[in-house]
Amino acid sequence: MASQTDTLPLDVQYHKLIEWLQVRQKLPQDWQKKLKAARLKLTAAVTNAAKISKSAVQTSVTSFLSEQPEENMNYFRAQKVVEMLIQSAEGQEKTLFGNYSSPFIQEWQKVVQGLAKDNLYLAEAAQIMVQNVNYEIPALKKAVSSNDKQIQELNRRQQDLKRTASESTKKFEEMCKKFQIKGDNFRAELTQLANNLPVLYDEIVSQLQQGGAMRAVEFYRSFVDMLGAKKSESATLLPYLAYICEFGNESIALKQWRDANPNQPPLDSLLNKPKNSNAASDAKESAEAGGAIDWGVGSTSDSTGIDWSISVDDQGTNATAAAIDWGGSGDVSTVAVEEGAAIDWSATNDTVETSTDGTAATISWDISANDNPGIVWDMPAGETASGGISWDVGDTTTVDNVSVEPAVSAESAQTLFQHTDSRNEILNDLLELETFLQQRLVEMSASDELSFSSQFQAAATIVKEQSIDSVQSYLKVIKQAIKTLMSPQTNQLLMISQSPKFLDRLVSMLQQQSDFASKQLQTATALEKKKDECLRVISVSQSQLEKLVDSVIELKRQVESSMAKLFDRKVHIVGEINKISK
Fold this sequence. Notes:
Blueprint: E1 10-13, H1 17-23, H2 31-51, H3 59-67, H4 75-86, H5 103-116, H6 120-179, H7 186-194, H8 197-210, H9 213-226, H10 231-234, H11 239-247, H12 252-260, H13 267-271, H14 279-288, E2 320-324, E3 333-337, E4 375-376, E5 397-399, E6 402-404, H15 420-446, H16 449-455, H17 461-464, H18 468-486, H19 488-498, H20 500-567, E7 571-574
Parallel strand pairs: 1-7
Antiparallel strand pairs: 2-3, 4-5, 5-6
Helix pairs in contact: 2-5, 4-5, 6-20, 7-19, 7-20, 15-18, 19-20
C-alpha cells in the first residue's frame, strides 16, 4: 500500500528540471548529444515542409508551420503536426503493414519518436522554458518599456522644440516689426528702408521749421547777447541748427559755399544754368532787352549801333556788287556794297583790304586776348597774354565775376544729416538749445510776472515776448527732434546706409533667427518619425511577448501533464515561470 507521501504533488523548479530528471535517471548522461541530433531532424522536417507543394499537405498544416519560428518548434508541436497530417488526405493512405505511405508523414513520425526516446523532449522543454523565462520575455518587456520611455522623452522634446520654435518665430516677427520689414528678402528690404532716411530728415527739418525752432535759436542768441556777449559771438551760436532751419537739409558743399559767399546768389541757381552760359549769352540777353552789344572793339561811329562802313543808295542802283570770299569752297555770298568801301573789324583802326577788281577781300582778325574785358581767364601769376591766349585755367573759373567751384567730392556731396560730423553738430546744437530752454522754463516758472518784466526791460523784443507757453512749445519741438535723431531705429538705419559690414551682420542675424525656428520645427518633425518607429517596435514587441507568454504557459502545462504520466503523480513546475505576465 502506497504511503501518503507518494500521492503528494511533486514541485519542481523550472530551472532545475533537467538536473532533477538526471538525478532520477530519467535522462541519459549524453542527453545533450542525442537531443542535438533529434533537433537536426526536426529542423530538416520543417525545411522540407516549406518545399512541399500545397497540394501535398493541408492548408492548415502549412499555415501552422509558417506561424511557428524554427527555434520555438518542440516535441509537442511536432506531435500537433503529425496529428494534422494523419487527419489529412495523405493520412488515409497506408501500406500493407499498416504504416503510412506518405514520406512526409513518415519523416515527422521519426522526429517525434526521436524526441520521445529517453525523455529528450522533457530536456528540450526545460531548455525552452529557461531560455524564454530568463531571457526572451525580460528582453521583450525591456524593449517595450524602453521604447515607451523613449516616446515620453520624444514627446517632451517635441514640446520643447515647438515652444522654442514658437518663441523664435515670435522673436523673428518682433525683429521684422522693429525694422519695419516683411521678412521676405532681408537685404533688399533693409536697403530700401535705409533709402527712406532722407524722408525722415526732411520730416525733422519740417517739424523744426514749422515748430518755430529758428525763433528759439534767435531767442537764445538774443539772451546770450543780453548777458554781455559780443554781437558777433552770439550770432554764431547754434550755426548748424540755424542753417537747417533756414535752408533745410542741404549738402556740405553747398553750405560751405554759402558760408564763403554770403552775399552771392544761391549756387544751385548757377549750377542749373545751361553749360554755354557765358558773357556772350548775357550780352545777347541784354541786346534782346534793347541794349547795344559791346564786342570789345573801338567804335567807328557816334551811334550805339554797329558801323559796317557800308553805303547803299536808296534804290540800290549805284552800288557795285562785290564778292566777299569767306574762305569756303561753296557758294560766294554777294553783297551790294559801295565801291571802295572797307569793313572795319579791328579795334586798332586796321582796315579790311578790299579789291575793286572782283578779287576776294582780305580781313584782318588782329584781336588781343585782353581786348575783351568781359572774360577773365585767371591765368597763373607772372604770365601774360602776349603771344596768344593762354588756356591754362586755374582751380576756379570766373564768369561775370561769379566763381564756380569744380566738382565736389563724394563726402562734400552728402547732406548735413548724412555726414557724421555735421549730424553730430546739429545734435549738439539741439541739446544745447534744449538745456537753455529747460533752464529758462525753470527760471520763468519760479519768477512772478512783475519781477520778470523788470528784469528784462532792456532786453531785446524777442526775449521780452517769450512766455512759459512759447518756451514749452519750443522745447517740445526740440525734444521731438532729439528723440528722433537719437532713437535706436534711426541709428540702425544710419549704420545700414553707411556700413556694408553692419548690413551683412544684420542680414545674417535675421537669417539665423529665421533658420533657427525652421530647424526646430524640422527637428520636431524628425522626432515624430522616431516616435512612430518606437510605437511600431512596441507594437511588435508586445505582440511577440503575448505569444511567447502564452507558449510558455502552454509548454509548462504540457510538461506537467507528461511528467505526471511518467511519475504517476501530479507534478507542479514552480518558480519565476508562474509570475510571467503579458
